[in-house]
Amino acid sequence: MAPPGHLPSIPAGQANVSAGVEGMFQQILQAVQKSHIEIADLRQECAELRLANASLERQIRDGLQYNFHVSRTATPGFMTPAPPSPQLRAAKLSPFLSHSLPTLSPSGPPEPIYRPSPLGDNAPTAFPFGTRDIPGFYVVIPAGGAGTRLWPLSREGHPKFLLDLTLKGRSLIQATWDRLLPLSSSARTTVVAGPGHVVAINEQLPDLLAHNLFTEPGPKDSMAAIGLAAAVLARRDPGAVIGSFAADHMISGDDAFLSAVAEAVEVAKKDYLVTIGIAPSHPSTGFGYVRLGEKLGMKEAPNARLVSSFKEKPDARTAASYIATGIYRWNAGMFVTKATFLLELLKEYKPNLHDGLAKIADVWDDESARHAVLSEIWPSLEKIPIDNAVAEPAAAEGRVAVVPATFGWDDVGDFSSLADLLPAESNQPRVLGDSNLVVTEQVAGGIVVPGSGRLITCLGVDDLVIVDMPDTLLVTTRARSQEVKRLVKKTRDAGWKHLL
Predict the structure, then answer these.
(1) Fewest beta carbons less than 10 Å away: which of 52, 64, 392, 473?
(2) What does the pLDDT look like over 257-272, one tens digit per residue?
(3) What's the pTM value of the predicted model, to 2 decimals?
(4) C-alpha dihedral sign at 97, 102, 103, 109
(5) Are 386 and 349 members of one domain?
(6) CA of 64: how far to CAs of 50, 79, 124, 425, in Å?
């Protein structure tokens, strides 16, 4: 027995164990302290970014001397503005910098001024060409689809491409027009649309020339729409290079976008069907993918590659594996090619569709004959996307190229993706419309559209989608916003077609 006041000795083995445990705890404490420091740094960076974003938003909202569009409060999303389409010019202006507009000389014609799309961030990346206009390049804007995943905000008679979904005073089709006009001018910018949208398109795009609005009698998917434009434009200009860009997509980084299109045009001149590949920001299951092949080694298009293959929309695990390889890009459905080359591909892979479009194009400029031939041939044309019709089989033969691009892109396919495009206070839902009509308590995330004009109040609910229109109310979650299309079908089957 140890004498009083004397501590018992600890065996050497136990001492080593104790020292090891103590050292382990010290390491854990150091790791925790380091994590706390990193988290504090991240919080500081986030706070600084929020302040910077708030400053930029104020500059955009209050300081754009050259943007004559209506204010944010004047267009509550579901009401589409119809201002005159701006004349896009040659010198780039950034909405984040102050500019003095050049004085126009009275002795000659006014110098052009380029006004960027208000729906792009206009990142100051280098544009590698001396002039933006590309001779012989024709823009084709297919304006179709009802945007059913954005119902009841988007309707068949007033689809999403006619809506101002970002409260910046321009609809999606107007922003598409703004973005592409520097490359082609209004004389070489065409729109393909259904008869029900012609009036609205003409109101929103007053600079669109009448003979450049191609009206298709009914929806036949992208191959018929783009093929019709190619067939007509090939007769007007046999050397035409066409670029097809959907009317309802969002793009950020206008200069990077224009640079990618300019590269795609150079590749298209070498008899390729060229797509523009979007760098994926996450393993999306809602987009198709393009697998990059070998570099083409073209001096005029240093980023261009062959397309190894197209991939359909994958499941989450497959999408993650695509991202991990670094050789996949999102397929945004943008195609650039010679009009005559597209028709050659169409004749090879879909001869019946080619022949039908050729007969329509032969009489297109004779309005009376056009209507007769359209009514006879159009209903019999195959309904098929351009990817399935020509892009996929041509890629297998090494005839499709891709220009990997760096600009931001979103097809605004559902309310979840729309919510990501709208500003919001911390832990608050996004509001598309008058924020004074939305009162919340302990609500985080989600998106609210107060379209009916009545007050919407939310308590203790997160990530909801609430779309309150005068005739319809939709309530779902962001996680299930892709399934709104199913709800639209059930609504139609239940006899509410007039609300679609």
Answers:
(1) 52
(2) 999 999 999 999 999 9
(3) 0.73
(4) negative
(5) yes
(6) 21, 22, 17, 23
